[in-house]
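Weekly modeling sync, notes
Attendees: S.R. (lead), two postdocs, one rotation student

Agenda item 3: backlog of single-chain predictions. S.R. asked that every request posted to the team notebook include the full sequence so nobody has to chase files. The rotation student volunteered to paste the first one in as an example of the format we agreed on. Action items at the bottom.

Example entry:
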Amino acid sequence: MADEYILKHLQDVLDAINEMQSCFVDFPNRFDLFEQDLMRRCVVERKTEIMGEAINRIRKEGPHI
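Predicted structure, as returned to the notebook:
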């Protein structure tokens, strides 16, 4: 059961990474453009929150992590 719980949250992290990456396909690798792009900044912020929440839930599952 614990393994399924951990795998579910690891999948949440992977999904957030993939969704974040999809927002940057064909986007120039320039921070100044990213900084001005409210939509992409919001996506990165939200997906980072999702990853943090998932990782915190994994860590709370037990001291073995």
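Discussion: group reviewed the output briefly. The first helix runs from residue 2 to 22.
Action items: rotation student to repeat for the remaining queue; S.R. to check formatting next week.
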